[in-house]
Amino acid sequence: MAVFDTYTQGTPNWVELVTPDQRGAAEFYGALFGWQMVENPLDDGHVYIVGSLQGDAVAGITFQLPELAGHPAFWNVFLAADDVDAVAARVGPAGGVVEAEPFDFFDFGRTARIQDPTGARVGLWQPRSTQTVRANEPGTPIWNELLTPDIGRASQFYSDVLGVSADTHPVPWATVPTYTTFSSAGRQVAGVAPVADGALEEAPPHWNVYFNVVDADESVAQAEALGAKLIVPAYDLEGTGRMATLTDPHGALFCLMAG
């Protein structure tokens, strides 16, 4: 069991699905991960769905704004900010863009939407009542990873804005000799991997969320039976575990990791 009360700045502390079909998505992820779904009525007539395990919040499922009509669903990753306004003020001078200025998301927390200098979008989250309480166990987020064409530039940006440190480690993988991680308060909190220039049209810079499962192959089969599409078949990554990449029935990309 892994329960978290607080997160140091720069640590992913919330993930949120933006989808045109909240209840359909709730059925899919509820069946796949065993989440219990709580619908929270909002002042604007919508609901905000929180997926939980054993009463502990894991992730959010929100509605799609009208301007995103026709856009595939997608997972947002949020990084902890001690003071969203202060962090957002550092984004522009560091070379990024504040796409959504800091605002209160009802009583859940204060947030902002930013884009780093390499094009990856990510949220800032200063929680009030809601954050990922349960993580790093089956059915919960276990890892978050930035895919970027310029690891050095991205690393400098997140260091300047959020104070994380970037470290490069040798890895036993055949595809790449090293892997970069972000650390906050001495703890590794996210990974950074390259996305090749030629792949940018199909996979622009973005943040991925990995959900832990007991058996990657069984979870892939279950997800496909529920309507998901397999993008990267399950494979073993030495020293890390077995993982796969899928899209949910409405197009949102997510990753599974066992081990």
UniProtKB/TrEMBL annotation:
InterPro entries: Anthracycline_SecMetBiosynth, Glyas_Bleomycin-R_OHBP_Dase, Glyas_Fos-R_dOase_dom, Glyoxalase_6, VOC_core. CDD domains: SgaA_N_like. Pfam families: Glyoxalase (PF00903), Glyoxalase_6 (PF18029). Gene3D superfamilies: 2,3-Dihydroxybiphenyl 1,2-Dioxygenase, domain 1 (3.10.180.10). It comes from the Bacteria. SUPFAM superfamilies: Glyoxalase/Bleomycin resistance protein/Dihydroxybiphenyl dioxygenase (SSF54593). Residues 11-127, 140-259 form the VOC domain. This is VOC family protein. It comes from Nocardioides islandensis.
